[in-house]
C-alpha cells in the first residue's frame, strides 16, 4: 500500500505573528493612554499653537514618541499577511501593504511635526497637514480592503472577523470628521482608534484561539 503525505499547515501562528500582535496590542494601549493624557492635560500654550496643549519641548518629546509608537501599529498590520487570515486573493495583501505604507508615512509625519513646534496652526503647516491627511487616508483604504478580505476568508469569526475592517472604517467615520472639529473630539476619536488597534493586536497575539 502506497502512503501519501499531505502537507501540514500549522494552525498556531508563528512567532512573527504573535510578536507583531503583542507589539500592536501594547502600542494600541499606550496610544490610547497618550490620547487620554492629551485630552485632560491643561494647556500650557494658547490653543492656536501647533504644539497645544504642550510647550515646544513637550511637543517634541511626544512627537518623537508617536513616531516610534506608530511602528508598533505597523507591526500589527504587517502581521496580518503571515497570519493567513486574508484568504487566497491578492486584494487583501495589497490592502495590508497600503496600510503598512500609510502607517510608515504617518510615523514620518509625526517626527517631521517637531518642525512646527513654535508655529501657529495654519501658518506654514500646509505640507505637514497634507502629509497627515494622505497617510491617514492610505491607512484607512488599506485596512478597509484588508478587512473585507478577512471577512471573506472567514478564518477569523466573531469580533475578530470585523476588527481590521473597523480599524479602516474608523479613519473615515468618526476620525477624519473629528479631526476637523474641536481638539477634544479629535483626541477622543484617535483614542478610540488606538483601542481598535489594541483589539487587532490581541486577535493576532491569541490567534491560536480561533476555532475553539
Report on this model:
The protein has 212 residues and is mostly helical. It has one domain. It is built from six helices and no strands. Helix 1 (15-40) packs antiparallel against helix 2 (56-78), helix 1 (15-40) packs antiparallel against helix 6 (183-205) and helix 2 runs antiparallel to helix 3 (91-112). The longest helix has 28 residues, at 126-153. It is elongated.
In terms of topology, how is this protein built?
Elements: H1 15-40, H2 56-78, H3 91-112, H4 126-153, H5 160-179, H6 183-205
Helix pairs in contact: 1-2, 1-6, 2-3, 3-4, 4-5, 5-6
Terminal residue distance? 36 Å
Strand content: under 5%
Number of strands: 0
Query: What is the helix content?
Result: 55-70%
Number of helices: 6
Q: How is the main sheet built?
A: none
What overall geometry do the principal axes of the alpha carbons give? elongated
User: What pattern of helices and strands is seen along the backbone?
Assistant: HHHHHH
* Overall pLDDT score: 92
Number of domains: 1
What oligomeric state do these chains adopt? single chain
Amino acid at each position: 500500500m502506497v502512503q501519501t503525505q499531505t502537507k501540514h499547515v500549522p494552525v498556531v501562528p508563528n512567532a512573527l505573528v504573535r510578536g507583531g500582535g503583542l507589539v500592536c496590542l501594547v502600542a494600541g494601549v499606550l496610544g490610547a493612554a497618550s490620547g487620554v493624557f492629551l485630552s485632560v492635560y491643561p494647556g500650557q500654550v494658547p490653543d492656536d499653537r501647533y504644539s497645544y496643549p504642550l510647550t515646544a519641548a513637550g511637543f517634541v518629546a511626544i512627537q518623537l514618541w508617536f513616531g516610534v509608537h506608530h511602528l508598533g501599529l505597523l507591526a500589527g498590520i504587517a502581521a496580518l499577511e503571515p497570519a493567513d487570515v486574508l484568504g487566497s486573493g491578492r486584494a487583501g495583501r495589497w490592502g495590508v501593504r497600503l496600510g503598512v505604507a500609510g502607517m510608515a508615512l504617518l510615523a514620518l509625519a509625526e517626527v517631521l511635526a517637531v518642525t512646527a513646534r513654535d508655529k501657529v496652526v495654519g501658518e506654514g503647516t500646509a505640507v505637514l497637514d497634507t502629509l497627515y491627511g494622505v497617510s491617514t487616508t492610505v491607512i484607512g483604504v488599506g485596512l478597509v480592503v484588508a478587512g473585507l478580505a478577512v471577512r471573506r476568508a472567514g478564518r477569523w469569526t466573531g469580533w475578530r472577523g470585523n476588527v481590521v475592517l473597523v480599524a479602516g472604517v474608523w479613519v473615515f467615520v468618526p476620525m477624519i470628521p473629528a479631526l476637523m472639529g474641536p481638539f477634544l473630539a479629535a483626541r477622543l476619536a484617535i483614542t478610540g482608534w488606538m483601542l481598535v488597534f489594541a483589539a487587532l493586536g490581541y486577535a493576532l497575539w491569541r490567534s491560536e484561539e480561533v476555532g475553539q
